[in-house]
Amino acid sequence: MAFAFLFSTACAIIGFVLAILGLFAGNTPGFMEDYSIIMLNTSALGRNYVPALNQPATRDLSHVVVLADEEANVTATAAPLPHAVVEVKTTTNTDSTDKESNNNDEPKYKILDDESADNADKNNVKAKEESAKKLMPRKLTLSAAEGVLAGLPADSAADDMAEVLGISEFYSLHVMNVCEGTYAPNATAADAWRNVSSCTIQLNAQQLNISELIDNELNANFVDGGSLARIGASSSLQNALGRIPTIGLVLAVFYIVACCAAGLCLLLTGASIVTRATHGRETVLANLGAASGAALALLIAGLVSAVAAKSTVDSINRLGEDTIGMQAVHGGKFEALTWAAFGMMVVVALFWLHELHSDAKKAAAAAAAKKKAAPAAAKK
């Protein structure tokens, strides 16, 4: 019996710790980021504006500069030659004959040595930096951004599209909040990991709405405003995205209940060492109720993660992956953690249920013995 009590106590501790971890996963940037409920991959958002994804191209978005004109103009800066610079000089002798003039009009080329080339490179870089400081940053129009997206090369489109739109490359839903950031080293790397840049306020129902967060970022990034609807998201896709905050709120409620019940169960388990002898039935019922409450709350949370969240992920992928490039990923690690915590609390509840049954059998046996002894005492 002592071993069973110690085992149930260990399960109560593990279940409580797992529930706390699930509740506070993603609480701060980078903390258990992989344990998200739903993750939206938006690195390819706007792929409907990239008609040549499978065509080779050489355009590099890292060299795109947006000028502060009345119109949104995009120019690409070329990379300098690595070892030498070709300097072109043109001279004209107006006092010479036509033949000599024609000879002088021909360009003369001078190859600078490596030291001169380095100095020229430094001067060019300095001049560009000073010019860039004079240019006031301005926003693109959504139409101009669509034009940039249309010219992206296939090999780097996934790494550049989110940058053009001014949004994050992923948005992850956790129990308490939503986090966003970029993939490192890049979105197309096989071993890419999530580099979280910011997280929303905890338990803010409005900020659990990922589609609204993306709409706000798009709207702030473009002069004429922007939204998922404007880049091609259907109403069905927006309805699927609208289920995300509801899932987050439901999981937050039941996870908080589970953590409170599991913590209470742990305290009652410790107290039962003292109260079990004097208030046996009350102690068993209190522990059974706390363990059962935690297990029930975790059961509902697990079902929400396995059914509702999975269904939402499937709907988003079906409606958004091949249209606007939005992909959703179900949080398998979070679901596994939830079911593990549920299993621990079920073990604790079963132990106290066994204790209740044992106490009932002992009480019934004592009552039967007392009833049997009563007639014998009466005859005497």
From TrEMBL:
InterPro entries: SUR7/Rim9-like_fungi (IPR009571), SUR7_domain (IPR052413). Residues 96-132 have a biased composition (Basic and acidic residues). The chain crosses the membrane at residues 247-273, 285-309, 336-353. Pfam families: SUR7. The keyword Transmembrane applies. Residues 87-132 are annotated as: Disordered. Signal peptide: none annotated. The keyword Repeat does not apply. Keywords: Membrane, Transmembrane, Transmembrane helix. This is Actin cortical patch SUR7/pH-response regulator PalI.
